[in-house]
Amino acid sequence: MDSSTSCILLMLASFCNMVCFFTTNAQSSSPALFVFGASMLDFGNNIYINSTSNCSVPPYGIDYPGHFHRKAVSRCSNGRNIIDFLVEMLGVPSPKAYLSMSKTRNLPEEFLKGVNFASCSAGILRPTKEGFCIPMDSQIDYYSSVYGTLMEKKGFVQTQRFISNSIFFIDIGNNDILVYNGTGISKYVSLLISTLEGQLKRIYKLGARKFAFMGTEPVGCWPTLRAMNKNTGDCDIEVNQLSVLFNEQAAVLLQKMQSEYADMIYSFFDAYKEFNKYINHPETYGFEEVKAACCGMGFLGVEILCGACDSYCSDRTKYLFWDSWHQTEVAAKLMASAAIDGFPPIVFPINVKQLIGNGLHSQI
Ligand SMILES: *[C@@H]1O[C@H](CO)[C@@H](O)[C@H](O)[C@H]1NC(C)=O
Ligand SMILES: *[C@@H]1O[C@H](CO)[C@@H](O)[C@H](O)[C@H]1NC(C)=O
Ligand SMILES: *[C@@H]1O[C@H](CO)[C@@H](O)[C@H](O)[C@H]1NC(C)=O
After folding, report:
1. Is the domain covering 31-220+234-271+329-357 a CATH 3.40.50 domain?
2. Which positions carry the signal peptide feature in this UniProt record (predicted)?
3. CA-CA distance, 287 to 280, in Å (whole number)?
C-alpha cells in the first residue's frame, strides 16, 4: 500500500468516526424550548429583578395544578400559561426561568432542557416599561451567555446541533403597543419591526434555526383599554389597527429572513386573528364573558387591580380575561393548541408541530 492510499484510508476512517459521532449526538439532542417575550410566557423572571410587575401575589395562579393555598406561582394567569401548555402538548422539557437558575448545579445539562427568558411587561423597545422588566435586548444578552456556556462545555458540534433543533418561541410586541402614545401608527410599526429584525437576526447568529413567532393580540380589546371607553366598554380601534399592522409586517419580516437564511424555518402565529375568534364567537369556545376581567373590581374589573384586591369570578372557565391584561388558563390552552396545530390564515407557513418534525437535523 503506498502512502497516498493509506492516507485516503485514514481519512475515510476519521470521516466514519465523524459520521458516527454526529449520529450519536443527533439522537441525544431532543428539542427544547427557548422562550423570549413578555407576560403571556413568563415563568417568574421578574421576581429576581424585584419588579412589582411579577404576577406573584395571590390570587394569581389559584388554578395552577398542585398550587398550594395562597402561594402564587408567577404566572400572569389564574393557572397555566401558553408555555406550560406547549410543554404538556409537545412532551418537551419544561424550561426554567433563566434568573431562577443562578444557583443551579450542572448548568450546561439544565440548559439542554431549554430556558425561559420571558419577562412580564417586556417590549421590543427598551423604553417600554423600563425598570419593570427584562427588555428583549437583555433577554438576548442572557441567551448569548447560555449559548457561550454550551459552546464551552459541550463543544461546537453538539451545541449547534441541539440549538438548531430547538424551538425559539417568541411573543413580543403587545407591551410596545400598549404604551403607544399616538405619534403615528406606521412610523411606530416601522420602528418596532426594524428593531425586531436586529433582535431576530442576533438570535439566528447565535445558532437558532427554528423560530415560532407569536404575533400580537387585539390589545385594544384588553379590559384595561376597553375601560377607557367609559360608557360603552368598546375596544380601542386605533390600538387594534396598530396590532394588525404589526402582525402583517412581522410576518413579512420572517419571510424575508427565511429567504436570506436558507437554513432557517419558522412558524408565524397570528394571535390577533385567533384571539378575535374568541371575542366574536364566545359561545363557540365556551366563554360567557369576553370583556371584563375575572379578577379585579369596578368597571370591567380594572378599577381595583387583581392582586391589589382578592376579588375574582367563581367560574374562571367562562372568562376570556383573568385580569386587566392577561387571558385565563382556558384561553391560554386554546392559544397553545392553535400555535401547535393551526393552519393558514392563522398559522403559517407551517405550525409548531411541523416545525418540530421538520428535519434540518442532518445539517450543521
Ligand atoms: C431584590 O431584593 C432582595 C431582598 O431585598 C435583595 O437581596 C436583592 O439584591 C434584590 N435584587 C435586585 C436585583 O435588586
Ligand atoms: C411582586 O409584586 C408585588 C406587588 O404587585 C410586590 O409587593 C412584591 O414585593 C413583588 N415581589 C418581588 C419579589 O419583587
Ligand atoms: C412617544 O413615543 C415615541 C416613541 O417611543 C417617543 O420617542 C416620544 O418621546 C413619545 N412622546 C411622548 C409625548 O411621550
Report:
1. yes
2. 1-26
3. 10
CA–CA dist 331, 7 (Å, integer): 63
> Where in 172-223 does DSSP place strands (E)?
210-214
Summarize pLDDT for 190-223 with one digit per residue, the tens: 999 999 999 999 999 999 999 999 999 999 999 9
* Ligand showing the shortest atom-to-Cα distance for residue 46: 2
Q: How far is the CA of 182 from the centre of ligand 3 (A)?
A: 8
Half-sphere exposure of 81 (CA within 13 A, CB side): 25
Cα separation, 147 vs 107, in Å, equals 12
In this prediction, residues 317-337 reach a mean pLDDT of: 98
CA 318 to chain CA centroid, Å, is 25
Can you tell me the distance from the alpha carbon of 150 to that of 161, in angstroms, rounded to the nearest whole number?
Answer: 11
Q: What's this model's pTM, rounded to 2 decimal places?
A: 0.90
114: part of which helix (H) or strand (E)?
A: strand 114-116
Task: Identify the active-site residue in 29, 39, 53, 164.
Answer: 39
Q: Specify the pLDDT at position 70.
A: 58
Q: Is the CB of 181 under 6 A from ligand 3?
A: yes
How close is the Cα of 257 to the center of ligand 3, in Å? Answer: 29
Task: Please report, for residues 62, 275, 279, 293, 299, the alpha-carbon distance to residue 288 in angstroms, rounded to integers and kept in the order given.
Answer: 20, 15, 10, 12, 17
Measure the CA–CA gap between 264 and 203, rounded to whole angstroms: 11
C-alpha cell of residue 95 = 424550561
Q: Among the atoms of ligand 3, which is closest to the Cα of residue 183?
A: 1
39 catalytic per annotation? yes
